[in-house]
From TrEMBL:
This is Uncharacterized protein. InterPro entries: RNaseH_sf. One of its GO terms (molecular function) is nucleic acid binding. It comes from the Eukaryota.
Amino acid sequence: MLGQNTNLKNNDIVKHFVQEGFKRRTLYNIIKRSEMGLPAEDLPRSGRPTSFKRKNLKRLQNAAINRIGVSQRKLGRKFGVAQSTIHYNLEKLGLKHYKRQKAPKYSENQVEQIPKKCRKMRRQMLASNTFIIVDDEQYFTFSNDDMPQNVGFYAFGKEDVPDNVKFKTKEKYPKKVLVWLALSAKGISTPYIGSTKGPAITADIYVNKCLSKLRSFIEEYHAGDEYIFWPDLASSHYANKTTRLGMHQNQPFWF
């Protein structure tokens, strides 16, 4: 019907095809090309041919997708093209670069315990208005070598650089500042801050320094509440000295 009507204006034609889902600018360009006697299809244009062959796109996708340590410069050397060509073709494929996220690494035993403890928590949480109390600790070293501005230095050559500048020394178990606290939906405990030397908090420090603050936190915020204390899987949280103290004081520890 549209093709048989020769009295239609350009505006009417555009309105019709816009309703069919075509872009308004594309339609006006086609009409203009038709008035100039040019075909509607865009003919191949002259110019520099691409240096990256179409058959290499699939190879590039397989070489880049879901792989760690792949850089555009390495891919450029592999395919014999510039880094900018790799960048352009990765965008053409729709591949984007993402930074890896940090996540805890669990042992096989910890992975087995997770669903059991989650089921136990679900049963108790659905039965009553129970609060979950958790605690955690963090360590801070006294050195500032890990700060981004301290990882490098300027020099005319490495030969005349002092050793304390050239080398970043590291102790196996450096002195660290330990910061511990407990928290729940109602608030945060008084933190414990102290020095420690070793890979992790010991049971003696945890029992003598941290659990007293935990008891004060429970008495202040959860005196009449149903609650579960759910520590993480650090060895000091489940040492014999720690568990005996929890059972003696009738604390609902999460095992």
